From TrEMBL:
It comes from Actinomadura sediminis. Gene3D superfamilies: 3.50.50.100. This is Uncharacterized protein. PANTHER family: FAD-DEPENDENT PYRIDINE NUCLEOTIDE-DISULPHIDE OXIDOREDUCTASE, PTHR43755.
Length: 193
């Protein structure tokens, strides 16, 4: 079985989780010796034709450079968050796929962008700013029978506080969070944390 992330992915957490959970289920079913697992990492370029078609919108890798308001640098009418946003980090040139921008960081970016879009619609000045590196790091990774909680005051160094907690309780927390977020989405409670 081959598991990997799609071309241009810069957060491998979901693929790792899927790989860990698949390995756990195969062991549980007694099939792990019969089903070899291979993990394939993503290509270093994002393959979105609509982004590439807009002159100057994306960088050479296909990511959209943004301000800390999550407006595209070359097209201020376009707000970009998550995996498509090219964020500035000290080591970007050393890592072809950039940095993680899914889950909690994307939610932070989306809130900033949405508030700024609403301000623009009302004809007001955009007041929300949040650089990727300054947003808090909150991640819970499910790894089959175990899991890891990652908490830090900032996404990128220098950090004042950060902790990695590998515990079975992390898996339970991940499942609870997933159920909570699905309930929240199904019932329209988008303002809840």
């Amino acid at each position: 079985m081959v598991i990997g992330a799609v071309q241009g992915t810069d957060c491998f957490g979901a693929a790792y989780e899927f790989r860990f959970n698949t390995a756990y289920q195969l062991r549980k079913a007694g099939l792990n010796k019969r089903v070899p697992l291979t993990y394939v990492s993503a290509e270093p370029f994002l393959g979105r034709p609509v982004v590439a078609a807009a002159p100057g919108l994306a960088d050479a890798k296909g990511f959209v450079p943004v301000h800390d308001t999550y407006q595209a640098i070359t097209y201020p009418n376009i707000h970009t968050v998550g995996v498509a946003a090219a964020v500035t980090v000290p080591w970007t040139t050393a890592i072809p796929v950039g940095v993680s921008k899914t889950g909690f960081p994307t939610e932070v970016q989306a809130r900033v962008a949405a508030a700024n879009v609403a301000d623009r619609i009302r004809g007001e000045e955009q007041t929300r700013h949040q650089s990727f590196g300054d947003s808090p790091a909150v991640c819970v990774m499910d790894a089959g029978s175990n899991g890891v909680m990652i908490l830090a005051d900032r996404q990128l160094p220098p950090r004042k506080a950060g902790v990695l907690l590998p515990r079975p309780q992390a898996r339970v927390a991940k499942l609870a969070l997933e159920k909570y977020f699905l309930w929240k989405a199904r019932n329209g409670h988008v303002r809840l944390p």
